[in-house]
Here is the input.
Amino acid sequence: MDNSKEIEISVVAPVYNEEGNLPFLIPKLAEVLRGLGRSYEMIFVDDGSSDGSRRILKEMASQYPFIRILRLKENRGLSTALMAGMREARGEKIVTLDSDLQNDPADIPRLLEYLDRYDMATGWRRKREDTWLKKISSKIGNGVRNWLSGENIQDSACTLRAFKKECIQEIPVFNGMHRFLSTLVKMKGYRIVEVPVSHHPRKSGKSKYNIRNRMVRSFIDLLAVRWMKRRALHYEIEERI
Ligand code: UDP
Ligand code: MG
Here is the structure.
C-alpha cells in the first residue's frame, strides 16, 4: 500500500463470520469507490471471526492494494469493531457499512454528496428486509429511543453512514454505542441528515443480534445516553479579557 498518497475516503466494515458475503461485497465496493474518482482505502475489522473470513480477507488484500485488515484478538461486538476501524481511518471522510450485504455499496456516492452541507449522512432503511420480529423490535426500539432521548431519528442503528472524521473524535465510546451514534454526534453540535437507503435480506451467514441480546442492554444504554444528553455542558463564551 502506498502510504505517501493522501487518502480522501476510508471505508470501514466490521466483519464477524461473513465468509459467504465478503467475496461478493469487496468487488462491489471496489467498483463503487473506483467510480468516485477519489483516493480511498477499505478497512475491514475482523472482529475475531472463527470461520474463513480471515483467509478470504487476506486473499482479497493481495488482489486489492487499498484493503487494510485489522484483526481483533477476540470478538468484541459491532460498536468496538466500528470504533477500532474508525480510529485507524486515514481519510478525512469515513464511510461505514455492514459486511453482510444488507447495506448496499451503491448508496455510498449519494451519502457522500450530503457532506458538503452536513457533517454526517446516516442511512434510513425505509424498507427493511429482516424477520418480522426484528422489524417490530427495531420499530419499538427506535420509538422508545426517540421518546426517552428527545430525538426524532427514524433509524438510529443503520451502520451505513458517511461522515467527516472529526465527528467521531470526541464522542463518548461504549459497548452498544453504534445504536446511538447519531445522537452522540449531534450532541457535539454536528449537523446530521437521514437519507433513505436500500436494505437487502441476509443471504449468507447468521444475524448476530436478536431481541434477547439487544433489549435489556440497549435499554440501559438508552438511559445512559439520556442522562449524558441532559447533563451535557452547554455554554457560549461572551468575552475573553
Ligand atoms: N458484527 C461484528 N461483530 C459482532 C457482530 C456483528 O463485527 O460481534 C458485524 C457483522 O459481521 C455485520 C454487522 O456487524 O457486518 C452487523 O451484524 P448483523 O448482520 O449480525 O446484525 P443485523 O444486521 O442482523 O442487525
Ligand atoms: Mg445484518
Summary: The mean pLDDT is 95. Helices lie at 22-36, 53-63, 78-88, 108-113, 132-149, 181-187, 211-230. The chain has one domain: 9-231.
